[in-house]
């Protein structure tokens, strides 16, 4: 279900009243001023942005973090030194999500994309998520093994970029690992583990994920 803040139809006054009750006004104003953009932070959310990290985007960009739905915990955004978060427009990290950017990492998220409850985006190097994507409950996106993997005593590369195209839908519990690539309009089924590269309009499923259909599409 697409979040209320992304709706394209008139909402009753009660809906706006409920949203305002969940906003941390102090944090929203502080981070909007500090980041020179528009930030709407939900109560209970934890935002830790190092002084050398930055959030950027076109004029009018907006980050909605820790809002909507009824999950108890707020969202977590942690940005290590020199990391960069690029927003293409309005982006939403829902309640219960965790977004982590490591040292010198770059995460870009396109306009209209939302990351749902319980999802995690762990960016140690580079993660690209396109516009108008639906990242479902419990999804995991990681561009790193985190720990070193040795093969015959030789350490293997820990990082590889993750690229997710425009208008992609990642089903609940899906995992996207380092080096994976999904073209525009791709759909990853529930609990799929994506490790390979797939062209536009591909439906993938399984462990590891394999293409099960081509020329697919989806809508909110």
TrEMBL record:
Keywords, alphabetical: Acyltransferase, Transferase
Q: What is this protein called?
A: Acyltransferase
The secretion signal range is: none
Query: What residue intervals traverse the membrane?
Result: none
Question: InterPro entries, per this entry?
Answer: Hexapep (IPR001451), Hexapeptide_acetyltransf (IPR051159), Trimer_LpxA-like_sf (IPR011004)
Q: Lineage from the top down? A: Bacteria, Bacillati, Actinomycetota, Actinomycetes, Kineosporiales
Q: List the molecular function annotations (GO) for this entry.
A: acyltransferase activity
Q: Which organism is it from?
A: Kineosporia corallincola
């Amino acid at each position: 279900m697409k979040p209320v803040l992304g709706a394209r139809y008139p909402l009753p006054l009660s809906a706006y009243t409920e949203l305002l009750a969940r906003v941390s006004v102090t944090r929203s104003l502080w981070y909007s001023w500090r980041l020179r953009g528009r930030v709407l932070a939900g109560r209970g959310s934890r935002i830790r942005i190092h002084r050398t990290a930055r959030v950027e985007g076109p004029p009018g960009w907006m980050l909605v973090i820790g809002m909507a739905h009824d999950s108890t915990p707020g969202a977590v955004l942690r940005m290590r030194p020199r990391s960069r978060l690029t927003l293409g427009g309005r982006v939403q990290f829902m309640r219960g999500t965790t977004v982590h950017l490591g040292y010198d990492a770059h995460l870009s998220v396109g306009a209209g994309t939302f990351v749902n409850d319980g999802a995690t985006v762990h960016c140690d190097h580079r993660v690209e998520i396109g516009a108008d994507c639906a990242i479902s409950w419990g999804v995991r996106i990681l561009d790193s093994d985190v720990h070193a993997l040795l093969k015959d005593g030789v350490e293997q590369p820990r990082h590889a970029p993750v690229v997710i195209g425009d208008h992609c839908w990642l089903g609940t519990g899906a995992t996207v690992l380092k080096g994976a690539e999904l073209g525009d309009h791709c759909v990853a089924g529930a609990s799929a583990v994506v490790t390979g590269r797939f062209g536009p309009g591909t439906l993938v499923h399984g462990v590891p994920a394999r293409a099960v259909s081509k020329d697919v599409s989806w809508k909110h």
